Amino acid sequence: MAIRELADKHRVHRRAVRQAISDAVPVPRKMPTRDRPVSGPYESIVSQWLRADQKVHRKQRHTATRIWERLVEEHDAKISSSSVRALVARLKRELDIAAVEVMIVQIHPPGEEAEVDFGEFWAWLDNELTKVCMFVMRLSHSGKAVHFAYVGPTVEAFLDGHIRAFDVFGGVPGRIRYDNLTAAVIKVLLGRERLENPRFIALRSHYLFESFYCLPGVDGAHEKGGVEGEVGRFRRRHLTPQPVLPSMAALNTAMAAADVRDDGRRISGRLETVGERFVAEAPALAPLPVEAFDPATITSARVDVKARVCVRSSHYSVPARLVGRRVEVAIGGLIITVRCDGKIVAEHPRAVRKGSQVLNLDHYLEVLIRKPGALAGASALAQAKAAGAFTPTHQRFWDAARRAHGDGAGTRDLIEVLRLHRTLPTESVIAGMVEALLAGVTNPDLVAVAARTHQDDQRVVPVLAPTEIACATTIPAIAWNRPAPSLVIYDTLLPERN
Known about the structure:
Elements: H1 3-10, H2 14-22, H3 43-53, H4 64-75, H5 81-94, E1 113-125, E2 128-139, E3 145-150, H6 155-169, E4 175-178, E5 185-188, E6 194-196, H7 198-207, E7 210-213, H8 225-238, E8 244-245, H9 248-262, H10 274-281, E9 297-302, E10 308-311, E11 314-317, E12 326-331, E13 335-340, E14 343-349, E15 357-358, H11 365-370, H12 379-387, H13 392-405, H14 407-419, H15 426-439, H16 444-457, H17 466-472
Parallel strand pairs: 1-4, 1-8, 4-7, 11-15
Antiparallel strand pairs: 1-2, 2-3, 5-6, 9-12, 10-11, 12-13, 13-14
Helix pairs in contact: 1-2, 3-5, 4-5, 13-14, 13-15, 14-16, 15-16
């Protein structure tokens, strides 16, 4: 066939037919070089900005929209945003900025691995906006996760979170992934070698699990993506809007309830719920050790003249008799325990904010007996009222005692009643005060008798209105109706006289 005939048949130019006859491999096409009259003048500027972005935090780097805005504002550019987006995309490819690392899909056998991380969120605790640290442990196979709130990412919180998570799971995973948390790692060595905190080594030795550390920085962020995503998911799902709760203990209770609700959710791509997969995974976890592990840090402190010890920039009260003595303090993730001569003398929830005071009114009663005028303005009394330990019944008894005996004597009667809480249940002491108020008396000895009677009989305590108490001093005793004591029975013990 002639060249022209082949060209007509295949509808190509005769030149293409001659090239195909001369060589079976097509001749490379020459790409024409086109000028970019719109974006070309700004190419070097945008390239400089993108290079500079590699030295700053990723959250404050330029977006294509921001680059377009700067070109318009600073260089009076006549260019559309779509042209800038195309320019930025091309420059990122040329500068190897837009390179995406390929991830390898992993499988996680039951009970083999878990991931741990800390997150942060804000909550209203005791009517004050507070920054809270959240410990998260997530089982890689089932996706079952537990969340606990702490004051900060301290060593005590890190260890306590492990112990509580293992108790919830009912077992221990074989290996746990971490980033380079300061609570676990003292120094990052070559590769994945780490110099670990001795207390964390003790925890691993006690529960017999292995630790795996991700690469430092951005390179290792994807190596525990399950727990990284879990921190954000839980924060959006259960902590938005900001929770409003009276204490850290109430916050942890709410978070535990949220963990239970999450057992019914399904992770994308899975047929079973998180709870169903965890039921299948639980038998593969290693059993818990018989002995408990104490995560507390032991230190010592001297009791100041206000009967307080200073622990991590916060003050905690101890019994006033220990003023001037040095005591042992066990700092836990959520609890501060004070010991003296091997005995526990005080136990407080850990302060949420630095510089705060956690005071127990009972620790100051022996001093207030001698200084009753100091009770009304005492910080310990204000905290007892806020916590509900000093009830409206206590206040009504105090008011009645001061009306009957004056401020000093009436306050001393209240203090004697408060000391009954050391040996009697709270509901029994409140019942004793109610009976005393109804009878129109404020004698602490009679309150003690009524409280012990209530403890033995378990009677129902009536709820008093202020008007009932005001009238109680003018009506007959309706709860104090026991007979007067008699000594007749003791006459039988007297020797017979001739």
